[in-house]
Amino acid sequence: MAYQQFANQPGQAMWMPPPQAPPGCPPGLEYMTLVDQLLVKQQVELLEAFTGFETNNKYKIVNSQGQKVYFAAEDNDCCSRQCCGNIRSFEMKIMDNSQNEVIHLSRPLRCMHCMWFCCLQELEVQSPPGTTVGWVKQMWHPFVPKFAVQNAAGETVLVIEGPCLNCSFCGDVEFDVMTADETSKVGKISKQWSGLAKEMFTDADNFGIQFPMDLDVTVKACLLGAVFLIDFMFFEQVGNQEQQNTVW
């Protein structure tokens, strides 16, 4: 199992101790109550780096102290990965230390084209799997990438806005997390510069997320899901060629 192979590697960081779950908290999201930032690190796949053969993405998710909080693994078929590239649909399983799936992300297959409203991207967030707690939905804009973070009722609670050009050469790329009325910045998602060799020869990306400590845990889960949607849309590569690094 991919999770076991990754989790059991020697020299890996320790897991974050499980906190007491507050009333009404979805199982596994109690970890979110104690964090106001997360680092998402994609695992470097040697087969992909040397051959360009796209493999399922895998990530470890750690807190500010370097403790592992979750592990995420893409569940996809070979044909979708090789033929559909960064527009591919995917199911993403996010698991805790006990290998329990605590968050499930689902992205449908859609083309990406700025003139077609039906092609706006979206991601469903479930926690526990089977129970929808929110959505991340792309908002139409002619110049910048924008996403609405919605709760289970479909109400927009936050807005994510990125830069016009998402080139990550020699610097971080930041996506601001704004209030629903877009008047105040409350956090950010940063695609972090990983070094020349890693940026050129792999699509293994590092992301940082910052959000208010008292933010609802289901909204934090949606922001975590937004990282994977942004990664696939703007920073995913196929055959060592970056497919998408602008708004559209």
Task: Describe this entry's structure for a reader.
- With 248 residues, the chain is of the alpha+beta class.
- The chain has helices at residues 2-7, 46-51, 78-84, 196-201, 217-235; strands at residues 37-42, 58-62, 68-75, 90-95, 101-107, 122-126, 132-139, 146-151, 156-161, 173-179, 185-192, 206-210, 237-238, 241-242.
- The protein has a 12-stranded antiparallel barrel. The chain has a two-stranded antiparallel sheet with strand order 13-14.
- Strand 2 (58-62) and strand 3 form a beta hairpin.
- The longest helix has 19 residues, at 217-235.
- The termini are far apart.
List the helices and strands and how they pair.
Layout: H1 2-7, E1 37-42, H2 46-51, E2 58-62, E3 68-75, H3 78-84, E4 90-95, E5 101-107, E6 122-126, E7 132-139, E8 146-151, E9 156-161, E10 173-179, E11 185-192, H4 196-201, E12 206-210, H5 217-235, E13 237-238, E14 241-242
Antiparallel strand pairs: 1-2, 1-12, 2-3, 3-4, 4-5, 5-6, 6-7, 7-8, 8-9, 9-10, 10-11, 11-12, 13-14
Descriptive labels:
alpha+beta; twelve-stranded antiparallel β-barrel; 5 helices
Give the helix/strand class. alpha+beta
Distance between the termini: 35 Å
Work out the strand percent. Answer: 25-35%
Largest sheet at a glance? 12 strands, antiparallel, barrel
What gross morphology would you assign? globular
Radius of gyration: 17 Å
Q: Could you give the order of the helices and strands? A: HEHEEHEEEEEEEEHEHEE
The overall pLDDT average reads 80
Question: Stretches where pLDDT falls below 50 for ≥5 residues?
Answer: 1-10, 47-53, 79-85, 195-203, 239-248
- The number of helical segments is 5
Task: Tell me how many strands there are.
Answer: 14
